[in-house]
């Protein structure tokens, strides 16, 4: 049974059979072909058994699939397959990797050829769009000799499980830049400093945009050019990322739910805040308070946040903002920066929750983050060519205007807002954080 499970006929064999069949058919008219056809048949039979001997005389193929310990959600994750041959002849191989069912890809195949004793590495990428456990099935390698009559199937590494976590790659992208204060290099706008604390850090050369009130005249006289005192931002301030896991966050964008964008942004932002010595925590809620992680200033605290984010799922219910207000009032006792990731499609939905948001904003610095509907923006940008398209554009412009009105309504009540495209969420969130820190609002 083991032999039968590994034994396959090569596609070329059927071409050989077709040629033999044609010879027998034409021998009806050309009798000289009849003995030639039988001679070719016996030769093919001999080569068939010889090919089986070549492939099964020894274990000739060895392969290994290299998977990372964790896959990063919404990112291209590299996977490597290393393989080698120990056959004493040129080997033709076909690799079929059984990808996790979440990818819904059933046409994965890679073909190559190996010389005697040669090693090769095949790299490919996968992009998961859901968090959870991903199980890779068999790594199948079909080997054939230069005769290409039969194929032998090799199976390696069955059922390898890899968890898919929030975007670790995105978090690492901002990690080094956060340490070196170079966040503006990846498109984050530079925030002009409006105020500062009195914690002295260093004396540096004056650059346009520095507060002229911080000029150090003694150092300026010594160096013969303007020098200014630089002050540190106040540190160890509590910051909470609040995730709405209700049905409004199930809306998809580029195969990813809005909640997953918020989760990826929370992880990247928490890492940046911790590197800048602030305390970070997290709350997720819908009908109930599902997760509460108190704000702590430890780099190891990021692992706790990551594990909590890994297990968050969206619900199909409306979220209870009144419950959120009560929980914050009870558990978050110090003035904090609260980043609320949610979404409002209609201004009436915002007005229902506005009293609770205003109550939260009285004690804390609240930033409400919600999303632009990018499909509507694309529809608005297209030219209208008929009456139906005009109707669609008019309705789309109405919904787009409502988003801007909601932003104005929140700002009117002293609530900070971010209206962003899903793919720009992380950048805009860190921008707002830097702006609030520079302005000394917390």
UniProtKB/TrEMBL annotation:
Domain DUF58: 203-367
Keyword Methyltransferase included in the entry's annotation: no
Swiss-Prot/TrEMBL keywords: Membrane, Transmembrane, Transmembrane helix
Top-rank taxon, per record: Bacteria
Leader sequence residues: none
Transmembrane regions listed in the UniProt entry: 12-30, 36-56
Keyword set includes Transmembrane helix: yes
Name the UniProt record assigns to this protein: DUF58 domain-containing protein
Organism of origin: Aggregatimonas sangjinii
């Amino acid at each position: 049974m083991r032999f039968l499970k590994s034994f396959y006929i090569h596609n070329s064999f059927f071409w050989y059979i077709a040629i033999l069949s044609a010879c027998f058919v034409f021998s009806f008219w050309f009798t000289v072909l009849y003995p030639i056809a039988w001679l070719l048949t016996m030769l093919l039979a001999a080569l068939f058994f010889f090919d089986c001997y070549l492939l099964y005389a020894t274990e000739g193929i060895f392969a290994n699939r290299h998977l990372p310990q964790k896959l990063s959600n919404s990112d291209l994750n590299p996977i490597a397959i290393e393989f080698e041959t120990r056959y004493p002849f040129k080997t033709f191989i076909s690799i079929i990797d059984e990808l996790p069912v979440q990818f819904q890809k059933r046409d994965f195949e890679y073909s190559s050829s190996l010389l005697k004793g040669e090693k090769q590495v095949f790299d490919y990428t996968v992009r998961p769009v859901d968090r959870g456990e991903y199980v890779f099935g068999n790594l199948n390698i079909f080997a054939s000799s230069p005769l290409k009559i039969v194929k032998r199937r090799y199976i390696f590494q069955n059922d390898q499980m890899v968890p898919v976590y929030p975007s670790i790659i995105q978090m690492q992208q901002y990690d080094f830049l956060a340490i070196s204060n170079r966040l503006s290099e990846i498109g984050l706008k530079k925030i002009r400093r409006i105020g500062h604390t009195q914690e002295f850090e260093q004396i540096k050369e004056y650059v346009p945009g520095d507060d002229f009130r911080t000029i150090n005249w003694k150092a300026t006289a010594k160096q013969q050019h303007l020098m200014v005192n630089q002050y540190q931002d106040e540190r160890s301030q509590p910051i909470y990322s609040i995730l709405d896991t209700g049905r409004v966050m199930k809306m998809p964008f580029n195969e990813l739910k809005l909640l997953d964008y918020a989760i990826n942004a929370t992880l990247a932002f928490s890492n940046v805040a911790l590197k800048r010595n602030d305390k970070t925590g997290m709350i997720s809620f819908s009908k109930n308070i599902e997760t509460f992680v108190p704000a702590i200033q430890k780099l190891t605290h990021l692992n706790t946040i990551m594990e909590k984010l890994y297990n968050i799922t969206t619900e199909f219910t409306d979220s209870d903002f009144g419950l959120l207000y009560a929980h914050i009032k009870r558990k978050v006792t110090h003035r904090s920066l609260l980043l609320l990731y949610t979404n409002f499609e209609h201004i009436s939905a915002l007005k229902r929750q506005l009293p609770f948001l205003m109550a939260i904003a009285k004690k804390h610095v609240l930033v409400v983050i919600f999303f632009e509907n990018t499909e509507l923006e694309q529809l608005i940008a297209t030219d209208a060519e008929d009456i139906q398209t005009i109707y669609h554009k008019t309705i789309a412009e109405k919904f787009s205007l409502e988003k801007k009105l909601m932003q104005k309504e929140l700002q009117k009540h002293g609530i900070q807002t971010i209206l962003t495209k899903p793919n720009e969420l992380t950048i805009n969130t860190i921008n707002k954080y830097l702006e609030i820190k520079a302005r000394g609002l917390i």
